[in-house]
Amino acid sequence: MKPEKIRILAIGRNEEIIKVLERLINQEWYGIGVTKDDEAIEAFRQQRFDVVMFSNGLTGDEKSALQQQLSAIGPPPIFIQHMGGGSGLLQNEIYAALEANDKKKL
Asked: Where does the pLDDT of residue 8 fall: very low under 50, low under 70, confident under 90, or very high at 90 and above?
């Protein structure tokens, strides 16, 4: 049986950047991107995400509020901040977060 793909929700304020992130994420994993908090909450209610990636434009308070809201809906995901850069950096950020999470479970 084939393992399930890692599911990633990308949240940011710049629609063009979110479209690029969504395309890059879907090359290896399953992902959707949103630009509004209510879209993020609705997506999280409809399906389980392993990783929530914050992109550009969110304040610290907005990220904290979303982390609390999303964690209250279902099993808390891994939250990461995307720092920008190319697809290689994106992959490294995701792999590092997954690896760190696996080590926490040990």
From this structure: very high
Q: State the CATH number of the domain containing residue 77.
A: 3.40.50.2300
Dist CA 71 CA 84 (whole Å): 25
The number of distinct structural domains making up the chain is: 1
Q: Are 78 and 52 in contact (CB under 8 A)?
A: yes
Does 2 map to a domain?
no
Residue 89 lies in a domain: yes
Query: Tens digits of per-residue pLDDT, 26-57?
Result: 999 999 999 999 999 999 999 999 999 999 89
Q: Quick one: tokens of 83?
A: 């720092």
73 Cβ partners below 8 Å, 6+ apart?
Answer: 41, 44, 45
Q: pTM score, two decimals?
A: 0.90
